[in-house]
Every structure is written in C-alpha cells, then in structure tokens.
Write a structure and sequence with these properties.
The chain is mostly helical and 482 residues long. It has one domain. It is 65% helix and 1% strand. The protein is built from 20 helices and two strands. Helix 2 runs parallel beside helix 6. It is globular. It starts with 11 loop residues before the first helix and ends in a 14-residue tail after the last helix.
Length: 482
C-alpha cells in the first residue's frame, strides 16, 4: 500500500473529504459549536454523494440497512417533537400550564422547547454520516488502513500540541482563554474527560499498529517465545521508534488530563486489545490470564510513574462523584415522567432544573446528565433509546466476529471494537460521544471496522449465493463474478 500510488476515480473525493474531517474535527475546540457541526455535516453530506459503492457486498449493505432503520426512527421522533400536529406523541403539559398562567393561548408541542430538536440534530446527523462513510469507504482495505493511520497520526499531533501548550501557556486553548481545567491537559478540547478518551483511543490505535509491525517480523504461525529477544533485536529501530514515540506522546497527554475514568478505561482497553491481538500466540490455557495479569501490572506501573495526580484523585474522590450519582437519579425521574418521546432532543438543559436533587451543589448549571444513555432516553424516550442500544449491541457483535474470524486485517475491527467499548463505557459516566470532535473520527472508524469484519471471500460467497439462488420456475439466473 502506498499513499502516492492513487489513481483517480469518482470515489476519491469521498475518501479525501472523510480523511480531512476525521483529522480536523477535534481541532475547533472539539467542534461543539453549531457552525463547526454544520460545516462537518455539509462536508460529510457531500462525501456521501460521491461515496464508493463498488466494494460493497451483501453484509455491508445489511449494515447500511440497519443504520437506515435507526435513521428512520430518529426522523419519526423528530417529526413528533417538531410538528404542531404530532401523529401519536402527547403534548407536553407545560404548554397548557403556561397558557393558563399567562391567560393567552399558546400552541402546544411534544417538546418542552419548541424547535430545539431541529438545532440538536446536527451532532447525531454527523455521526450517522460518519459511520455510513466509514462503511462505504472502509469496505476497501487500503482506504480503511489509511483512515486508521490518519486517526493515529492526527491524534499524536493533537496530543503533542496539548502537552506543549500546557507546558508553554496553560491558560490558553488555541486562541482562546482557558477558563477551566487549568491544571490539566485538554488539547483542543474544552473538557479534560473528552480529551482523555480521545488520547486514550489514539493510544489504543498506536499500540495495535506497533504490535502488527512487530508481529509481521515474527514467524508466520506462532511466536517462539524463547527466540523473542532475538527477533526483537532484528527489528530496525527506524521502523519502530517513530511509532513508539507517538504512543508515548498519546500516553503522556492521557495521564496529564488527570481524568480518572478516561485513564482507567483507556488502560483497560489497551490491556484487552493487547490480549486479543496476541491470543493465538499465547499458551492455550493460562496465556490469556498471564497476559491480562501482566497488562494490569504494567498499567499500575504507568499509573505510579505518569499518573500520580490521577491516583490522588482516585484517593480523594473515589471512582464517581456523589453529585454525578444524584444527577443520574434525577435524570431517571425525567425518564419516568416522559417515557415514550422524552422531553425533546437537546432539551436536557431546560428539563433538568425542576428535577434537580437537593443533594447536588447549588452552584453552577447542570447542562448534561454525564451519562449519554440516560440523557438520550430522557430526550427521545425509552423506545428510541432501546433501538440505539440494540444498534450498539449489533455493532459490537459484528466487530467481535471480525476480531475472532478474520486472519488478515483483523487489526481494523479490533481497533474499532476496543475504541467503541472505551467510548461507550466512558459515555455512561460522561458525555464523550456527545462531542463531535471525538465522535466523528471514531464513528468513521467504527464503520470501517464493521466493513472489514467480513473478509472479501465471505462477501463474494454471499453475493454468489444470492445471485445463483433459485427464483422460481422458468427463471434463468446468471451470476456475474467480478
């Protein structure tokens, strides 16, 4: 594979736009403002127009169909929350109460804030476009690998910027004053927890790229552990040192965020990804446990060496803040009062105050539930949240199938499932997946991992079976093989 041996085709604009968005999305303060989100939606929408379909086979088409079902469900919920005459959603009682208090008629709505669902659509739309492009562009193994490298390289550059900016001018983020987390590295993100998840995910990708490079120089079937030191010495330093340097930079930035959940879950993802990558080379019975134990020892050593401030936060505050637990309980009450269609997309900021627990500090505004699944259920209702959860479950199962079923290019679904697990677990404690600067690059990676979870041989066999299947009497079926 060469970055320079690229022939022009109509699929190239989609790949170039996707690579550009994947590398650039974290830059403008995590792309949390409406202008950035609209720009990325526009770019990704244009890329979808040129999206390559030549490499798509039946498994990838089924995945796209599943995404289409979730998109249609989102459109239905959006209609109910925006329409003056929803089909089945009940009106929020707050509108009648306001009308009675003011003594004037007010048009009701299924959302507690009119038209807010339209403005909140940007981030979910960008994620949907990113995963669709990840599947279509990533169906080609060379393009999928280029995207993996693009995420890794851009992540290392953002980590390097985060470390240098913290050492040189810790009170600035790009060209703006830094008003929070002055003692933590945030890179180009506003929140240190999101930055930790991003740097940790990039560290996972770099670790897998290094392992693949090292493993390529080993014997074809199994690693001869007695000759491991000799094989490692045979690797030329210039082939591995730049990658190790990038991994070290990502780890340094990760620990300097001082995020407890971000650091802990990133180390967990790295340990699991390391074990899964080398599972065939480990002793059959005890190898996995030895690898997990060794990984845990290394993780604890890194915590002591680089994460002293993280450890102190664990000691002083525990795993989860008490205020966050109370916020989750309050969010559950919102869900209980609005189980079917929620309070409206993007309305948590307005829905939370009446339910705010008295055990939460009165200072500050609680603008997020710090649990994406709970906040999603409170805004769009339980049925839609369950459908999204089902989509995540199917995605993780398909990626796991790719990890255990593929021999070549298994690193792509492995990187996708490791980062997907990291981001999903972290979003249960925070709002990582609600930040487009993180979600856009990694939803694209999830899509590429899904596309590469099926070998080309399986895809061709599936297409041939469907083409040669009997279609009734008197019908001649011809299978055209490409």
């Amino acid at each position: 594979m060469s970055w320079f041996r690229i022939r022009w085709s109509w699929s190239l604009p989609a790949a170039f736009i996707l690579f550009f968005v994947v590398a650039s999305a974290p830059f403008p303060f995590g792309s949390t403002n409406d202008l950035s989100i609209a720009s990325w939606c526009l770019c990704l929408g244009i890329a979808v127009i040129f999206a390559p379909t030549r490499d798509l086979r039946a498994p990838q088409l089924w995945l796209l169909a599943g995404i289409g079902v979730i998109t249609a469900a989102y459109a239905f919920v959006l209609h109910e929350q925006l329409s003056d005459h929803p089909w089945v959603a009940p009106f929020q009682p707050i509108w009648k109460q306001a009308s009675d208090l003011l003594g004037v008629p007010i048009a009701p709505s299924a959302s507690i804030v009119k038209n807010e669902a339209f403005f909140a659509l940007g981030a979910p739309l960008a994620n949907i476009l990113a995963i669709v492009l990840g599947i279509t562009v990533g169906a080609n193994r060379d393009r999928a690998r280029r995207m993996l490298w693009m995420i890794a390289i851009s992540g290392a550059l953002y980590a390097l910027y985060g470390v240098l900016s913290f050492l040189i001018e810790p009170t600035m983020i790009l060209w703006r004053d830094k008003t929070a987390y002055l003692e933590s590295v945030t890179g180009t993100f506003i929140n240190r927890n999101t930055a930790a998840a991003y740097f940790g995910s990039c560290a996972v990708v770099w670790m897998l790229l290094i392992l693949e490079n090292v493993r390529r120089g080993m014997p074809a079937r199994h690693i001869a552990w007695r000759r491991l030191s000799l094989n490692l010495r045979a690797i030329r330093p210039r082939e591995i040192l730049p990658q190790l340097g990038c991994l070290l930079i990502c780890l340094m930035a990760l620990f300097m965020t001082t995020s407890r959940a971000g650091v802990g879950l990133s180390l967990f993802a790295m340990i699991v990804a390391f074990t899964l990558f080398l599972r065939k080379d480990l002793p059959p019975r005890t190898g996995i446990w030895i690898s997990l134990g060794a990984g845990l020892v290394v993780a604890l050593g890194l915590l002591q060496l680089l994460g002293g401030r993280v450890s102190s936060r664990f000691d002083s505050n525990g795993l989860v803040d008490e205020g966050r637990i109370e916020a989750w309980r309050s969010t559950l009450k919102i869900i209980g009062d609005n189980p079917w269609f929620g309070t409206g997309m993007g309305t948590f900021h307005w829905a939370f105050p009446p339910y705010r627990s008295p055990n939460i500090s009165v200072s500050g505004v609680w603008g997020a539930a710090h649990s994406t699944p709970l906040e999603l259920a409170s805004e769009v209702g339980i049925p839609m949240a369950l459908l999204v959860a089902l989509g995540w479950a199917v995605m993780l199962l398909v990626l796991a199938r790719g990890v255990f079923g593929r021999r070549r290019d298994a690193i792509i679904p492995l990187a996708a499932v490791a980062t997907a697990t990291l981001s999903l677990l972290h979003s249960c404690l925070d709002f990582t997946l609600q930040v487009p600067g993180y979600s856009i690059p990694f939803f694209a990676l999830f899509g590429a991992g899904l596309a590469q979870s099926f070998s080309s041989r399986e895809c061709h066999a599936s297409a041939a079976d469907s083409a040669t299947a009997p279609r009734g009497p008197g019908v001649l079926t011809v299978a055209k093989r490409g």
